[in-house]
Specification:
Elements lengths: L2 H31 L5 E6 L9 H6 L7 H4 L3 E3 L16 E2 L2 E2 L2 E4 L9 E5 L2 H12 L5 H12 L4 H8 L5 H10 L1 E4 L17 E4 L4 E4 L3 E8 L12 H24 L6 H23 L3 E16 L3 E6 L5 H17 L4 H10 L1
Antiparallel strand pairs: 1-6, 1-8, 2-8, 3-4, 5-6, 5-7, 9-10, 10-11, 11-12
Helix pairs in contact: 1-9, 4-5, 6-7, 8-9, 9-10
Length: about 350
């Protein structure tokens, strides 16, 4: 065996590792540094000096966040309540009032991010029935809905909403990482005094590289680009993405084994496509969604398009894997699109 195939494979493997590694690292960075309404970042008040405010505690971790930035976006974890796996979700209360939802730390890791999960199934079902059957007695509808949801336990509730957690992880999450909230979601003011031991949650943090044009903000994407599979059942959607990812990987591997040319650029493109496919597949297998965080837009501009109407100049959020796949496909097409059949055959014989 001559050294050319080994060199080819070394280039591709290097690009695959670089693309997949950069993609997975940046996604984990986004999880730890970017916050949204359902993906909150914790800040712990470990040592609190006299006069320290809640905003001061947050700024020890995120110095750029002012009290104005935090107003309406800062919440305190209520650690007074404890739950068990078989607790009925829709009968729970917090502070004597109906519980509206939960802050959830996977496996009870309070140093990681928290998910906000609303507990509004009863209201959603009642609203749907009232719209479908406005003639039905509302008190009867409410009673039937409560009876229907009475048997839903915390284990069932979390397993359905967080399918990436296995049975043992759900149990440890309920035991150490589950906290309820009421109507105001535990909202606190940043200017109020902090107390030692408190855990605060920040619900909004972006990183602006070019303000108005390029920013990092956190999004979980379970449905693909533009939400194309948003209406598909979650189990079917996961299977579709898994099959498509495997097919794409197999196609790229075939092209690596029998490349259309010996030029370096197409090999780099194949490595980028394969690395990107692997990066997104890892997220879908471990999380059931893909983390996107790169946001390009043209300020708040709106363009009126014929037939389509007003369209915002706002590109869907994406990640490093998407860059590897998109750029790889474009480069591969341009690099091989003008190669004559004779040269392709010679390239195959050389390989």
């Amino acid at each position: 065996m001559n050294g050319r195939p080994l060199k080819r494979y070394a280039i591709i493997v290097g690009v695959v590792l670089l693309t997949a590694g950069a993609d997975l690292w940046t996604k984990r960075w986004a999880e730890d540094n970017l916050a949204s309404d359902r993906h909150l970042l914790p800040v712990h008040a470990l040592e609190v000096a006299e006069g320290t405010t809640r905003g001061d505690v947050v700024r020890a971790r995120f110095p750029e966040l002012t009290d104005e930035d935090l107003t309406g976006r800062l919440f305190k974890v209520d650690r007074s309540s404890t739950f068990s796996a078989e607790d009925p979700v829709f009968d729970l209360q917090t502070g004597g009032a109906a519980m509206r939802g939960f802050y959830v730390f996977d496996e009870g890791d309070l140093q990681s991010f928290a998910r906000r999960i609303h507990r509004l199934d009863d209201f959603a079902i009642q609203r749907w029935i009232n719209r479908a059957r406005p003639d039905m007695d509302r008190s009867k509808v409410s009673r039937k809905v409560k009876e229907h949801l009475a048997g839903v336990t915390l284990t069932t509730f979390l397993a359905e909403r967080l399918p990436h957690l296995d049975e043992d992880t759900v149990a440890s999450t309920i035991e150490r990482g589950l906290f309820g909230y009421g109507g105001n979601r535990g909202m606190v003011q940043p200017g109020e005094p902090a107390e030692k031991g408190d855990v605060y949650l920040v619900s909004s943090r972006d990183v602006a590289l070019l303000p108005g044009y390029l920013e990092f903000n956190y999004v979980e994407n379970p449905a693909g680009a533009w939400g194309i599979l948003g209406g598909v059942d979650e189990g079917a959607r996961r299977m579709i993405f898994f099959v498509l990812s495997i097919v794409a990987i197999l196609v790229v591997v075939f092209l690596i084994i029998r490349p259309p040319t010996d030029k370096v650029l197409p090999l780099v493109a194949l490595g980028g496509i394969l690395g990107g496919a692997i990066g997104n597949l890892v997220d879908r297998l471990t999380l059931t969604y893909v983390v996107d965080f790169i946001h390009m837009h043209w300020q708040d501009a709106v363009v009126n398009m014929p037939l389509l109407g007003p369209i915002r100049m706002d590109w869907p959020r994406y990640n490093i894997a998407d860059i590897g796949i998109t750029v790889g496909v474009i480069v591969l097409l341009f690099a091989t699109g003008f190669v004559s059949p004779e040269k392709k055959v010679k390239g195959d014989l050389k390989g």
